[in-house]
Specification:
By secondary structure, the chain is of the alpha+beta class. The protein folds into 3 domains: 125 residues, Acyl-CoA dehydrogenase/oxidase, N-terminal domain (Butyryl-Coa Dehydrogenase, subunit A, domain 1), CATH 1.10.540.10; 111 residues, Butyryl-CoA Dehydrogenase, subunit A, domain 2 (Beta Barrel); 147 residues, Butyryl-CoA Dehydrogenase, subunit A, domain 3 (Up-down Bundle), CATH 1.20.140. 52% of the residues lie in helices and 15% in strands. A 4-stranded mixed sheet has the order 1-4-5-8. The chain has a 4-stranded antiparallel sheet with strand order 2-3-7-6, with helices on one face. A two-stranded antiparallel ribbon has the order 9-10. Helix 5 packs across helix 8. Bound molecules: acetoacetyl-coenzyme A.
Length: 387
C-alpha cells in the first residue's frame, strides 16, 4: 500500500527538502566549524546571523510580500533541526527570533505593524525577542508585575523582565504587561517595544550552563513611554497571545532538541567507529551499540512528534497538545542522548576539546525554557482530560 493510499505520507515536498538541504549545507559549512568558539566566547559572529537572514531562515514562514520566504511551519522545523545540530546557541537565537517575535507580529499585528516590522525581521536586519518572564514569575506567567498605564496617546511601562533570550541583541521586543491587575489574566496586554525607547534598558546579562553564545538578559522598563500604536492585539488579549505564541515556540524547541540529540548521535557514531579498546572498535561492544540504538530510535520518534505538531500548525488545526508532547518528549531525548554521548566518549567526553560536553550543557535548557517539562505535562493532562 502506498503512502498516498493510506493518507499517511511522511515524504517531504520538494520545497521542504530544499529548505532542509540549504540549512544543512549552511550549518555544516559555516556554523559547525565555529560552534566551539561561539560557546567559548559567548558570542555569535554577526555575519552568521546576517547570512541566515540572507538565506531566508529568519522569516521562513513569513509571506513573501512581507520579505519572508513564504515556506511552512514544517520547513521551519527542518531548518531549526539543522542549525541546532551544528550549534544550539545559534539555534536558539533563530528559534526565539522567529517563533517568539516574528510569529506574534505575523498573527496578531495590525497591517501597519506587519508592514513596519516584518520585512526587517524576516531579512534578519533586525532581531526580536519575547519578554514574558520576570524575576518572580516564570511558569506562572500571569503573575507578572510589569505594568502598562495609558497616558494620552501613549502607554507607560514599568517593570523588569528576566531570562530574555536575545534581550541584548534585539532591536525589538514583544513585551507583556499588566494593564489592570484586578482583571488578572484578562488585564495583560502585549506591546512591540523598540530598542532605544527612553526608559527601556538592558540590564544584567546572565552567565549560563549552556547555549552560552546566545544572550540571556534582563530588560528594565522605567517609565518607558511607547506610542498607543505599539499595542499588539487588544488590551485584554496579551495572555492568550503569549500562550498561543509559546505553542509555536514549543515546536521549535522540540526541533532544537532533535537537532542537539542528532549531534550527540552523529558525534558518538563517528567516535565509536574509530576509538579502540580491548583490541576492537568501541562500536563493536554491545553496551555501546545499545546506547546508539536507543538514541537513534528516540530521535526518530521525537522528530515524528515534532513534524506532526508542525503539520497540524500548517493545516490550521489545534496543535496545543501536539506541541507540548513534542517538546516534552524531544527535550527528554536530547538530555538522555547528551548523557550517553559523554559516556561513549569516556574521559574525552568530559573535555572541552570534544563536542560531547557542549551537547550535555546545551541539551538541559530544552527541558526548561518555553515551558518546563512539568508545565508540558500540565498542558498535556489538561488537553486530554477535556477531550
Ligand atoms: N493558546 C491560547 N489561549 C490559551 C492557551 C493557548 N495555548 N492556553 C490557555 N489559553 C487561554 C484559555 O482558554 C483561558 O482563556 P479564558 O480565560 O478565556 O477561558 C486562559 O488562556 C487561561 O487558561 P488556563 O486557565 O488554562 O491557563 P493558566 O493561566 O492556568 O496557565 C499555564 C496555564 C499552562 C501554566 C501557562 O501559564 C503556561 O504555559 N505557563 C508557562 C509559561 C512559559 O512557557 N514560560 C516560558 C517563558 S518564555 C521563554 O522561555 C522565552 C525565551 O526567551 C526562550
Amino acid at each position: 500500500m502506498t503512502a498516498a493510499e493510506t493518507g499517511f505520507d511522511l515524504t517531504l515536498t520538494e520545497e521542504q527538502e530544499l529548505a532542509q538541504r540549504a540549512a544543512r549545507d549552511f550549518a555544516t559549512e559555516k556554523v559547525l566549524p565555529r560552534a566551539a568558539e561561539i560557546d567559548d566566547q559567548g558570542k555569535i559572529p554577526p555575519e552568521l546571523l546576517r547570512e541566515m537572514g540572507a538565506l531566508g531562515f529568519m522569516g521562513p514562514y513569513v509571506p513573501e510580500r512581507y520579505g519572508g520566504s513564504g515556506l511552512d511551519a514544517l520547513s521551519y522545523a527542518l531548518i531549526v533541526e539543522e542549525i541546532n545540530r551544528a550549534c544550539a546557541s545559534t539555534g536558539v537565537v533563530l528559534c526565539s527570533h522567529v517563533s517568539l517575535a516574528v510569529d506574534p507580529i505575523l498573527h496578531h499585528g495590525s497591517d501597519a505593524q506587519k508592514e513596519k516590522y516584518l520585512p526587517k525581521l524576516a531579512r534578519g536586519e533586525w532581531i526580536g525577542c519575547f519578554a514574558l518572564s520576570e524575576p518572580a514569575s516564570g511558569s506562572d506567567a500571569a503573575a507578572m508585575r510589569t505594568s502598562a498605564r495609558r497616558d494620552g496617546d501613549s502607554w507607560i511601562l514599568n517593570g523588569t523582565k528576566n531570562f530574555i533570550t536575545n534581550g541584548a541583541l534585539s532591536n525589538v521586543a514583544i513585551v507583556f504587561a499588566q494593564t489592570n491587575p484586578a482583571q488578572k489574566r484578562k488585564g495583560i496586554a502585549a506591546f512591540i517595544v523598540e530598542k532605544g525607547t527612553p526608559g527601556f534598558t538592558v540590564g544584567k546579562l546572565e552567565k549560563k550552563l549552556g547555549i552560552r553564545g546566545s544572550d540571556t538578559a534582563q530588560l528594565i522598563f522605567q517609565d518607558a513611554r511607547v506610542p498607543a500604536a505599539s499595542l499588539l492585539g487588544e488590551t485584554n488579549e496579551g495572555y492568550k497571545i503569549a500562550l498561543s505564541t509559546l505553542d509555536g515556540g514549543r515546536i521549535s524547541i522540540a526541533a532544537q532538541a532533535v537537532g542537539i540529540a542528532r549531534a550527540c548521535l552523529e558525534d558518538s557514531l563517528a567516535y565509536a567507529k574509530q576509538r579502540e579498546a580491548f583490541g576492537k572498535k568501541v562500536a563493536d561492544f554491545q553496551a555501546i551499540q545499545w546506547m546508539l540504538a536507543d538514541m537513534a530510535t528516540e530521535i526518530d520518534a521525537a522528530r515524528l512528534l515534532t513534524w506532526r505538531a508542525a503539520a497540524l500548525k500548517d493545516a490550521g488545526e489545534d496543535y496545543i497538545l501536539a506541541a507540548a508532547e513534542a517538546k516534552l518528549f524531544a527535550s527528554d531525548v536530547a538530555v538522555k542522548a547528551s548523557r550517553d554521548c559523554v559516556q561513549i566518549f569516556g574521559g574525552y567526553g568530559y573535555l572541552k576539546d570534544f563536542p560531547a560536553e557542549r551537547h550535555y550543557r546545551d541539551a538541559k535548557i530544552t527541558e526548561i525554557y518555553e515551558g518546563t517539562s512539568e508545565i508540558m505535562k500540565l498542558v498535556i493532562a489538561e488537553e486530554i482530560l477535556k477531550e
